[in-house]
Amino acid sequence: MDILLDAQCNVAAPADADAMHHEVVGSDTGYRQRLLEAGLLTETGIDGLYGRSQRFEAVVDGLDAMITAAGQDLDAEVLRFPPVLSQADFETSEYFNSCPDLSGTIHCFCGGEKEHRRALQCIADGQDWSYLQQPAGLAMAPAACYPVYPLSARRGPLPPGGRTFDVYSYCFRHEPSPEPTRMQLFRIREYVRIGTPAQAVEFRQLWVERGKRMVDRLGLPCEIALASDPFFGRAGKIAAQNQYAEALKFELRIPLADAANAVACLSFNLHRDFFSQRWELRLSDHALAHSACVGFGMERIALALFWHHGLDIDAWPQPVRDALWTP
User: According to DSSP H, which parts of the chain are helical?
Assistant: First the structure.
């Protein structure tokens, strides 16, 4: 598949299959310490779990406004989901099949007084009490778009023009790390297109170009790179190689620390009929629909801005400030 990019946008590719599984994250824990000392992030005692300051949130809000403006011509249905989805939908998505190590489900206490006393005693004795909890039928959302597919399927066949969604949610991936760009709970803003194969391909290409222009406005260096998802195990390595070979996933990567340390901040994904096969998403002629999405990693883009322009947002270049905060 050929991806047409503007003249200033280079396409990079991993040197080998193992590189597809290794996203080099920018900066070291020294950057994390600087962010904490500046009050932009707040420690919680858990790696990858932070509080965000008002200044940090001002940057995220500015990014959110930019993304809204960039997609205002899409006539997208705006939906905001909680960071959980039903365990049934999570299982249907097959995310656990591919990424069990990143997945999370929610368990709750469902016992009576006897079990409660036992749990309290375990806590007092410093022992594990998780065996007294049961699955709540909920899973943590690994991506903001996952609730869209069963929702669209319940509405029946797509209209002739397909459907476009604008979604935003906290997402969870279990990969605790002191590296600030690798959070366990983080926000993804997405536009999702469900329609014909041609509509999905056109949509992905549109956002490769728009995403690059947005990052240029923010004064950030970047590259567009072929990529794959972090599939698990030996079979996952084959799936990643296939995803890469078929050019189903591109990332916009922004270097932190040096050119060799680049963080994936935007993701451009072509799903083909993967989700349609699982939820029976049909076109108006009852053929299986195709889908595509663009995802913006809100915290990662913010962290890239703080890295390249400094921790004091009042001192950022005026064009960057205008891009974020000019009505």
Answer: 29-37, 54-70, 87-93, 95-98, 113-124, 148-154, 197-217, 233-245, 274-279, 298-309, 318-325
The amino acid sitting at 261 is: N
Both tokens assigned to 130: 């998780």
Identify the H or E element spanning 166: strand 163-172
Comparing CA positions, the residue from 146, 189, 155, 139 lying closest to residue 291 is 146
Q: In one letter, which amino acid is 53?
A: S
- pTM for the complete prediction? 0.89
φ/ψ of residue 170, rounded to 5: -70, 145
45 within 8 A of 281, measured Cβ to Cβ: no
Name residue 68's amino acid: T
| Whole-number Å distance between alpha carbons of 280 and 283 | 10
pLDDT for 2-36, tens place per residue?
344 443 344 444 433 333 333 434 446 799 999 99
CB 165 within 8 A of CB 148: yes
pLDDT tens for each residue of 242-301: 776 777 899 999 998 766 779 999 999 999 999 999 999 999 999 999 999 999 999 999
Mapping DSSP to helix (H, G, I), strand (E, B) and coil, where does residue 102 land?
helix
A 10 A CB-CB count for 327 gives 3
Q: Using an 8 Å Cβ cutoff, are 198 and 41 in contact? A: no
The Cα-based distances of 259 to 27, 156, 168, 221, 222 in angstroms read 11, 47, 30, 9, 9
Would you put residue 74 in left (φ > 0), alpha (ψ -120 to 50) or beta? alpha
Note whether 146 and 85 are within 8 A (CB): yes
> How far is it, in rounded angstroms, from Cα 37 to Cα 50?
13
Q: What is the DSSP letter of 128?
A: -
